[in-house]
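Purpose: get a first structural picture of the assembly so the mutagenesis plan has something to point at.
Setup: two entries, given in the order below. No constraints added.
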Amino acid sequence: MFLKTLCSHLARQPSSLDVILLFDKPTTILGPICELLDGWRYEEDQGEYQPVYEEFGSILLLILAFVNRYNLSTVDLGLHNQNSFIGRLLVRGANSYSMDELSEQEKNHLDGWIRGLFNSAEGGGLGDEPMSNCPPQDFYLLVPTLFHQVVLACSTGHLSDEALKGGLECESFDLFNIIAFTYYDRSC
Amino acid sequence: MTDLVDTFLLPSLVGAISWLANHIWESRGDSNTVIQILQTLINPGSISTDANSMLSTILNITAKPLEHSLRWLQRNEPTRQDVEPLSKVLKPHLSFSRTAAADHTELESWSNSHGGGIAGSIRHTIQSLTQWSLSTGMNIMPTSYTHRQILTGVRVLGAKRLLSAIIEEVKAQTANGSGAIVIDVATAIICAPDADSIPLTNSTHLMNMLGETSSTPQPLQRRLTLRDALRTEAENAPKTHKTDVLQAETVIRLFRRVEALMAVAIPQAGMLDHGLGALEGVDAGMEVGVGVGLGDGVLSGAHEIDDAIAAAADQEMMDALAAGEGMMVGDEDLLGDMKLEF
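Result (structure tokens, whole complex):
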């Protein structure tokens, strides 16, 4: 069984987390998989990115389920380094950042994702590009900022209610332009 | 954006929903956008079975803070019609968290109780549990109990003050003639494990994180537990006995029950040796009339090792008592009345 499948099954059944913790400490169980996610790298000849994101996400979701169910801290997880991915995600994972606070690389990643997600009308679905450029760790840390941009684009009135009701899949290209506009505007 | 509700990006909604929940508080008067986005994310139109179960996990994780934000929004804008449907979706996901933190409604009801705040409400709980045990009918509803109440009590009042409330209730119920049951209830409450009371075995993690490289890490200081507080009370029992006999008796009875129970529950390496050593010590103590003598009733029979272990587990207290007043605990009835004899 793949680790991904195992993690999804466990996360799906909250009581299974209780049972696991009857037998061992959170550090023992979560320590190794936190380290796995911290050190997650693309292969040199990585061909497909979606499966990587899928596996990463399933494992991460199990960790987040544990953390949230028992209110675990980084100490409980046995994290040696608070600057590791999981450490940063737990401490600042729900914070969004302004353009000034983002590094060049982060801006590029954000740009890639916005193009990928909202420009999909042209190519039909999200391409591999944002994922191949942006490792999953960086993506998860950028998610709040990404949503901040979406909210800004919508609330500045550039985006109609109708469009939003369409499941944010609205006039994808326009939305992309609006967001790009808003966020470049803010970055100036 | 629908890509976000596909399984490979779906876990990102944990961060997204958490951020949106916080943003509701910040975006005064402009929550429409956030609500509309939430509607799309939480109730996506078409979604695969896999994605759906994943979404359920995500809602488990994010529901509580989001529900708080939504309630706040509803209170501030009572005419809104779009908040209630979202709250409804979140409802089954609200009880996911298994932490000791009390809900604010619980906390309000406990501290509002007209019998003296949290201490009063905990006394009431003990009283109800005792009465429930006394009732003979099978169809009586069990007393409602959540251990969060006790944990909150320890946090708010501190172990010492909560313990004295428990002891007061034990005395009150004993006066009512249900001493055997109430002491069972109190013992169970004091013995219940609490994650905060377990010392962190590997405090080096924290030191590493703080950037300390000291070779001798300081052990983390933990909160005083009810059991610790009871031990202190028991150490002071000889002194208390001079002024308040009933109080000292109650403390010692409770202390012995708790320590006996805990000694069986946590077997530790090397404890048996100490236990046997203590047994000899106890015998010697009885002969010369100094030290803690465990009465005849205890020393004969299968309980002798357990009690000796209990005594050994708390050698310090024994020493303190031995050095002090030279107290003798005679145990006439193993589980029932226990008298202090000096």
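Chain B touches chain A through 47 residues (CB under 8 Å).
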